[in-house]
Amino acid sequence: MSMAKRLRVLLVVLTVIFTGMGTESGLAEEIRPLQSILNDVERHIGELTINLDDIRKRIDFLQNLPVTHDKVIQELRALDLQGWTLHLEQWELQLEHLQFTKTMLRKVQGISGEPHELRAAWRLHEGQYRTSLEGYRRQRDTIEERRLITEGRMFERYLP
Q: Where are the domains of the chain?
């Protein structure tokens, strides 16, 4: 038998073995993903908390810049501050969402609560969260548009 045929046979055997292993441990796999998801959510909460601290530092930096009498630079700074403040609010909302998600997943994991109540609570939260995110998107679009116009004025100022 050639080496290529041996390799193909080996791959088929390994595929059959791993497929069989996967179906035998089906119950364990149904239990483990929820804990893995909870671990991911907790990791994201930690990362987001660090990122929120960084955004707060950026906002503090912007608030403590030296005063300028240049109206365009004042406007750019104000837009930057609005943008970072909006970013902070949106990520705080994201943090609240992740904390809610963690709580709900723990309830599902322990089946603490009626399934229909858990579904209703999730759907209510999901609707509110989507609405809030859409509001943040609109505000961000407005700030970005105003910043683009202001940057254009800054650019024009230096043309001959």
A: 31-157
Type of residue numbered 39: N
Helices 71-110 and 26-63, axial angle in degrees (round to 10):
160
Q: Which of 21, 145, 138 is nearest to 90 (CA)?
A: 138
Kindly report the average pLDDT of the chain as a whole number. Answer: 84
Q: How far apart are CA 28 and CA 107, in angstroms?
A: 19
Does pLDDT of 97 surpass 90?
A: yes
Longest distance between any two alpha carbons in the chain, whole Å? 84
Q: What is the C-alpha to C-alpha distance for residues 73 and 62, in angstroms, rounded to an integer?
A: 12
Find tokens 């116009």 and name the residue. 149
The CA-atom distances, in angstroms, between 66 and each of 5, 73, 77 are 74, 11, 11
Residue 18, pLDDT score: 46
Tokens 């608030």: give the residue: 63
**pLDDT per residue over 41-76, tens digit each?**
999 999 999 999 999 999 999 999 999 999 999 999
Cα separation, 83 vs 85, in Å, equals 5
Type of residue numbered 62: L
Whether residue 104 contacts residue 124, with contact meaning beta carbons closer than 8 Å, is answered with: no
- In this model, does residue 29 exceed pLDDT 90? no
Q: Is the pTM of this model over 0.70?
A: yes
